[in-house]
Automatic annotation (TrEMBL):
Gene3D superfamilies: Tetracycline Repressor, domain 2. One of its GO terms (molecular function) is DNA-binding transcription factor activity. Residues 24-43 bind DNA. Residues 1-61 form the HTH tetR-type domain. The keyword Transcription applies. GO terms for biological process: negative regulation of DNA-templated transcription; response to antibiotic. SUPFAM superfamilies: Homeodomain-like, Tetracyclin repressor-like, C-terminal domain. This is Tetracycline repressor protein class E. The keyword Transcription applies.
Length: 214
């Protein structure tokens, strides 16, 4: 029997295999061996289906770290779990990264992140920018692999690009390099925020930048 969960599972498998651009309700119906009309009794539009899939994937993203009151821990847990969720389904990144819109689960996460940062002492405007900056970092890391962008043929680099003499080895170690690179970027980002936070705390109260939340 056709079910909502079965439709989501089949749609996600199709996207993972063939790409987001190849998902259509007609194609999905063929995968499920049903008529396209059967799908519309569960999902009014393809966009509704994609939003539901995005919600399911993003349920794995952990924002509980902000409960501790430690903004650095909260951002670390959120960023790592967010990247893991996106990396598991890279073809769906454009949908997930588009923003919360009216998706209830996404808005609850955004509320927890913003509220956690403000509760930890960040001005509302900074909390908004930190949320955006973290998203830029994570989505950039998930949408492509730096290491896999290099050719494995040593001849490509040997004569013309002497500073890239080891570039042919990058793809072989792509997962390790990409993971370590993300952790380096995240650590540097958090260290920079730590300095900004300390500067804000030292500033006279009247001079502290404020602002409103999103």
């Amino acid at each position: 029997m056709l079910s909502v969960s079965g439709i989501r599972t089949a749609a996600l498998a199709l996207i993972d295999r063939d790409g987001l651009e190849n998902l259509s309700m007609r194609r999905l119906a063929q995968e499920l061996d049903v008529q396209a009309a059967s799908l519309y009794s569960h999902y009014r539009t393809k966009e509704d289906l994609l939003a539901d899939i995005a919600n399911e994937i993003m349920a794995e993203v952990d924002v509980s770290g902000f409960d501790s009151g430690d903004w650095r821990h909260g951002l670390t847990v959120w960023a790592r779990s967010y990247r893991a969720a996106l990396a598991a389904h890279p073809n769906l990144v454009p949908v997930i990264a588009a923003g919360p819109g009216r998706r209830e689960a996404a808005l609850r996460r955004a509320d927890a992140i913003h509220g956690g940062l403000v509760a930890a002492g960040w001005p509302a405007r900074h909390a908004t920018m930190i949320g955006a900056s973290t998203k830029y970092l994570v989505v950039g890391a998930a949408i492509n692999s730096f290491s896999r962008g290099f050719d494995a043929d040593v001849q490509v680099y040997r004569d013309r690009y002497p500073n890239l003499s080891q570039a042919h080895r990058l793809s072989e170690h792509a997962a390790e390099i990409d993971d370590d690179s993300f952790e380096l970027a995240l650590s540097a980002f958090l260290d920079g925020l730590g300095q900004t936070f300390a500067d804000l705390k030292r500033a006279p109260t009247a001079a502290r930048p404020g602002g409103e939340g999103p």
